[in-house]
Amino acid sequence: MEENYTDKSFRFYTRMHLSELTGVSAGNVEELLKCIKSIDGSSIYHHTHRFLQQHEYLNPEPANDFAYWVGDALGENRLAEALASIDTVSFKSIRALREELSNVISKYIESSKNRNIRAAMPGMEFNFVKTVSFIFPTGYVAYTPSEFADCLQKITSDSLYFHMFEARLRLDKQENDFSLWFRNSMGLDKPADAINRLDPYTHTIGQLRKAIFDILKKGGVL
Fold this sequence. Notes:
Order of helices and strands: EHHHHHEHHHHH
Helix content: 40-55%
Low-confidence stretches: none
C-alpha cells in the first residue's frame, strides 16, 4: 500500500477481511500461553479487536476472546479479569500486545503452580482464528483539511476503522493515519494529538466520525 500522505495528500483506503481457522488450538492456560507466543500476529489482532470491527452502532466493552475463554471454559476467573483489564487499544504494535498477554498468563501460571491445571471440556478448546485483510483505495483523496472533512463524511465505516485502528496496530505505526497526516503533512499538532487521544471503547464508529469532525471545527482547522 502506498503511503497515505505523500505530496501532502491523504489517500483514503478501505479494507475487506476474511476470518480463517488456523488449525491451532489450546485446551488449558499453558497451551494458550505457548500458542500466543508463536501464533501469527493476525490472530492476536483478531482475538483482541474483533468486537470493535463488528459493532458499528454499539459502544463496545473492553474485552478480548482470551479473557472470555479462560473464564467461561476454564473457570479461571482471576486470569480472566487480568486479561480483560488489558487496554488492547493502547498498544502501538502487535508485538507489544503479544508480550503483555504472555506476561499476564505467565505470572498467573507461576502463581498457580502448586495446583492442578484446569483443562477445557472436549469441544470447548480455544480455536485460534486469524484475520486476512485486503486493502484497496477508495478513490477519495484530500489535499486540505476541508477536503479531508468532506471525504470523512463520505467514506465507509470500514475505511474509517482501517485508518484509525488497523493501520496503526497491524502496520506498526506510532499513531493513526489521520493524526500522522495532520501532523506531518499539514503541520497541525493540536488536532493530530486530539484525534490520537480518541478512545474507541467509548465511541461507536459513527460517533468517532463526528468526534473527528468536531475536533477540526472547534480547533479552527475548518
